[in-house]
Amino acid sequence: MPHSIIDLIGNTPLVESKVLNTNPNVKLYFKLEGQNPGGSVKDRPALNMIKSALERGDISKKSQLIEATSGNTGIALAMIARIYGLNIELVMPENSTKERVQTMRAYGATVTLTSSDVGIEGARDYAINKVQNEGFIMLNQFENDDNWKAHYKSTGPEIWKDTKGKITHFVSSMGTTGTIMGNSTYLKEQNKNIQIVGVQPTDNSSIPGIRKWPKEYLPKIFDASKVDQVLEVSQDEATQMTLKLAKEEGIFAGMSSGGSTAAALRLAETLKSGVIVSIICDRGDRYLSSGLFDN
Fold it and tell me: GO terms for molecular function, please (predicted)?
């Protein structure tokens, strides 16, 4: 029996696509990360980053933490920081959905909103400035190996076990890239032939949770050699697939999950056979005010 909300992080379900995948020789499974207590895949790295930093003595209850986030990592960090009695300031672009801001504040975090004109890059610059000049400590999900190691320790082994080692393709949207890096590292150790497929937005597409980073902001944890193929999806494609996921598969998720699903289905059409696992990284309820589901 779990003793803490933390004990409910991980061991998320894997469900098979029953409608959208039409290739009878390919199995497509969705890894439902929205089932984590904080509602997203980011619960895993948030827990591993905080717990590991505490164990090493890098942070303590006297530390003032700060982190730039587009949303899901912030919610996870807000929840887990409070459980460990830590104070944290979360920095987000001002155009982030109000559900995300409200959820972080509900967990007791301080939330600072930066100009939407400079996006998440501007939020990162703000946080770095406070680290350099005001003594704040940043866990820095973009450079912290504890981010991807969370998936190496939990998500990858779960997928390998639940597919009985039959997985042939892993598909994930790429933001901080921790999910794809950790799963790739673990799954390739089990079977080097497993194909790792990353998902990016097309130029001029805005998809929350998926980024095509400028070179100077590319996450330090990213290793291109661990990704076999990159598929691009448009904003419209991701939006329409998010709506289809809810209406046809009963999976209520955010737009980055629509993007990864669109890529996974495109991939499935090209295969003679295979077992694809695609990450559904969060729940749709934190996007209700965005207009995503108004169609």
Answer: cysteine synthase activity
